[in-house]
Amino acid sequence: MQKFAEYIKKIEIDSLWSGKKHIVWELNPRVNILSGINGVGKSTILNKVVRGLAAGGEFPSHMIKGVKLEVVPEDARWIRYDMIRSLDSNLQQSINEGEGFIRQALSALAGVGGGSLLDIQLYNLQRKYLDYQVNIGNRIIAELQAGNADAAQQLSIKKKRFQDIVDELFEDTGKKIVRTENEIRFTQIGEMLMPYQLSSGEKQVLIILLTVLVEDDQPYVLFMDEPEVSLHIEWQKRLIDLCLELNPHVQIILTTHSPAVIMNGWMDSVTEVSDITV
Description:
This protein is an alpha/beta fold. 39% of the residues lie in helices and 18% in strands. Strands 5-9-10-3-11 form a five-stranded parallel beta sheet, with helices on both faces. It has a three-stranded antiparallel beta sheet with strand order 2-1-4, with helices on one face. A three-stranded antiparallel beta sheet has the order 6-7-8.
């Protein structure tokens, strides 16, 4: 049986800049915010860790040279994770990371007017959202068959809360999630909208919230590189709290330039790159 980590305890990176600097970062189990001026290495730190995890296989044997992670529990050999990059993500890098899937997604999106990196992420998340609903539905049926009506009702709360949150965030534009559809769809003044027709900011926040939701309360590490790009300032303020509400077991590791992201009591979770460089 695969043993998954609950969270990453420490990140160590040797020779971040041609042997001149080393990173030692002690992490909080829940929220970790990396700050610093442009070019200081915030994105580089996240990317080095994620490249090792993306290699696949049992941890830590597949981590790239010079990158070491300590996890809890110590004997865990697998890490559930996702990486959400800012809007100027490198398309070629994304293609290299999943060429076959991206070509499939682009083909499917051609018929609905999509095709950006955000659309590709949404296409992938739509499929995960369907799987999530099937899993929840099966568990609800099992609880009802066992006579546990209250437990069955509890299982549907998180999905409903996700839908309520999205409706709250999109309220000013009159968009609402269609709750009778299995895939994500919206109505706006009587018109049906696909998620690929949303604005960049709406797509970005939807991607973040869906990514957290479909992990279904499992221990999980979410890396985000400047997730506030294109987000309304009020959304930036709520971002961390909403992620933790949808999955209290997520560990957030993010970079940011925005003071708004830490306004709701997250100042103590901020680490400067200079403070972890030795």
